[in-house]
Amino acid sequence: SIDISTLAKKTGLTTLDYGFVNTAATRSAITYIDGDAGILRYRGYPIEQIAQNSNFLETAWLLIYGELPSANELANFDDRIRHHTLLHEDMRRFFDSLPHKAHPMSVLASGVSALSTFYQDSLDPKDPEQVEISTIRLLAKLPVMAAYAHKKSVGQAFLYPDNSLSFVDNFLKLNFGNMAEPYEVNPVVSKALERLLMLHEDHEQNASTSTVRLVGSTEANLFASVSSGINALFGPLHGGANEAVLSMLGEIQASGQGVEKYVERVKNKEQGVKLMGFGHRVYKNYDPRATLVKESAHEVLAALGVQDDLLDIAQELEHIALNDDYFKERRLYPNVDFYTGVIYKAMGFPTRMFTVLFAIGRLPGWVAHWREMNEDPATKIGRPQQLYVGSPARDYPLR
Ligand code: ACO
Prior knowledge:
binds acetyl coenzyme *A, mainly alpha
């Protein structure tokens, strides 16, 4: 690889690279992906070993600070996060004021952006103590806001966090508990959600992380940068695909025309018809996260005693696509989003919450990248070039 910015200065050369298919915007020591071999590692550790042995907060620490925490470090980290879960009461009123039909992703992005107004003491990206406290606040409060976005969308009262519970269990209670009855966390759901969140924690320079870095490169604060990342994740070509997969499976089921008919429509490139949850800019092989998610889908549905025809449709769709030349030639395989929706549905989350769950999972990665960028002396404000293709200079007509 060459450092194109030095070369460009010397030669006046500009590269045009739609979608940054071949252009690195930074160096990074956080996540390694080999898309041809289907390899994903966090700080050198294979994702399969992380999924098997770690937990959400330990992996978050690993991504943010670079090494696995000691038992003491992890306990302190967990404790600090638990003690920052409460939101300012005005923040609850802020959520109240949003329309209940709003998409939970828009509510979440608005809430994270609003954190800049409530915590003006921790907005300086160059002050390590402020960066540290804003990291903790974000990890603690974003899941609470995500649960509020859910409660808001179903018209239920917001609960206060229960800091005696773990990160994931607290989140489940905030989503599925109510004020009238005690809530017991189902350990199957808790374990599966923890695993899914871990699998989402980082994925190097994807669109939302690149957005967080680009916004952060202007020295914008962490809350502002992460809320921009949430908005980037919302799109159906990125995190929004998990919601779109479920709509697609539901559409196939409702049409009664079978999976093959839908695949034909995809191959005929009918306007707006894609195999959602398939294909990836980097993976030209099975996404290793999709393998792990598929295992979880079977385990969770079996443990919860849920029979969902959508899982059968998903498996049939995968089988047909993997054996079809159209998909083989283009090296299109299931990505992480393909099976997650079926699991989230079995857990009881409404479809519109699926991308919000992705955002909670991805948060440590966004924070880790923002901090890495912020600490890197080579960082410059992100400012892409363009090739101007408009009109040459002309005189304004005198009328
Ligand atoms: N269904 C059908 N055809 C597809 C799909 C798909 N899901 N994905 C790519 N293709 C086809 C394209 O039509 C194109 O065909 P062509 O060469 O005949 O024109 C070829 O495969 C290459 O596709 P590109 O669009 O160039 O691939 P790109 O790397 O730009 O896009 C993307 C990657 C956006 C993920 C794409 O595969 C897609 O839209 N997938 C569906 C949405 C999705 O699942 N997104 C989640 C991605 S993972 C994540 O963000 C967590």
